[in-house]
């Protein structure tokens, strides 16, 4: 849970196998990327267990209850293609070698992390609030966080650039 609440955007890069606890850990990230030939597998049932680190609850929110039930009760291997279809992965990278995949993942993530860190943190806070809090509390949080960026340096610079009118 602490990992999912990090103030900046996180991404799990699955190279090889994310099995059991590793599969649970990737659900705590904001995004998941996979390399060719990689797999995700919730094998807890074969061990006489269920996920215990929040992986089941987060999996339901990521893929829906029906798909989560299939993945948890079937303990089937999820390849990159199926992960994309389920919404468990955002993209399959081209490279499977470690350095190439890491560079590709950094480039992919940059589209979400470019810009002022204060604004990225604010975005992450409102998304986390929307995911975890009741709607009324999430709305209050969003309003409060909006107040921290309105009139701030990033907002004022954007107004000078007038991006709304481009």
Written description of the protein model:
The chain has about 170 residues and is mainly alpha-helical. It folds into 2 domains: about 5-110, Alpha-Beta Complex (2-enoyl-CoA Hydratase, Chain A, domain 1), CATH 3.90.226.10; about 115-160. About 55% of the residues lie in helices and about 10% in strands. It has 8 helices and 5 strands; from the N terminus they run ββαββαααβαααα. The strands form 2 sheets. Strands 1-3-5 form a 3-stranded parallel beta sheet, sandwiched between helices. A two-stranded parallel sheet has the order 2-4. The protein is globular. The protein starts with 10 loop residues before the first strand and ends in a 5-residue tail after the last helix.
Radius of gyration: 18 Å
Compute the average pLDDT: 94
Task: Supply the CATH class of the largest domain.
Answer: Alpha Beta
Structural class: mainly alpha
Residue ranges: pLDDT <50 for 5 or more in a row? none
Report the helical percentage. Answer: 40-55%
Beta content: 5-15%
CATH fold label of the largest domain = 2-enoyl-CoA Hydratase, Chain A, domain 1
Span between termini: 40 Å
> What is the CATH architecture term of the largest domain?
Alpha-Beta Complex
The number of distinct helices, counting runs of at least 4 residues, comes to 8
Question: What's the total number of strands?
Answer: 5
In this structure, how is the largest beta sheet organized?
A: 3 strands, parallel
- What's the CATH H-level superfamily name of the largest domain? 2-enoyl-CoA Hydratase, Chain A, domain 1
Sum up the overall morphology in one term.
Answer: globular
The tally of structural domains comes to 2
Main location: cytoplasm
Catalytic activity: (S)-methylmalonyl-CoA + H(+) = propanoyl-CoA + CO2; (2S)-ethylmalonyl-CoA + H(+) = butanoyl-CoA + CO2; (2R)-ethylmalonyl-CoA + H(+) = butanoyl-CoA + CO2
Subcellular location: Cytoplasm, Cytosol
Keywords: Cytoplasm, Lyase
């Amino acid at each position: 849970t602490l990992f999912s609440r990090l103030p900046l955007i996180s991404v799990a890069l699955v190279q090889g196998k994310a099995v059991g606890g590793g599969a649970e850990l990737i659900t705590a990230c904001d995004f998941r990327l996979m390399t060719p030939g990689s797999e995700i597998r919730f094998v807890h049932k074969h061990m006489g267990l269920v996920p215990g680190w929040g992986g089941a609850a987060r999996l339901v929110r990521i893929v829906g209850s029906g798909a989560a039930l299939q993945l948890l009760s079937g303990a089937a291997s999820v390849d990159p293609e199926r992960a994309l279809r389920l919404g468990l992965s955002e993209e399959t990278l081209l490279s499977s070698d470690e350095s190439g995949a890491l560079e590709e993942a950094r480039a992919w993530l940059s589209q979400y992390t470019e810009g002022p860190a204060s604004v990225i943190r604010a975005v992450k806070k409102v998304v986390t609030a929307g995911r975890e809090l009741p709607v009324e509390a999430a709305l209050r949080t969003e309003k409060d966080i909006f107040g921290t960026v309105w009139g701030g340096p990033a907002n004022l610079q954007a107004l000078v650039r007038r991006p709304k009118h481009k």
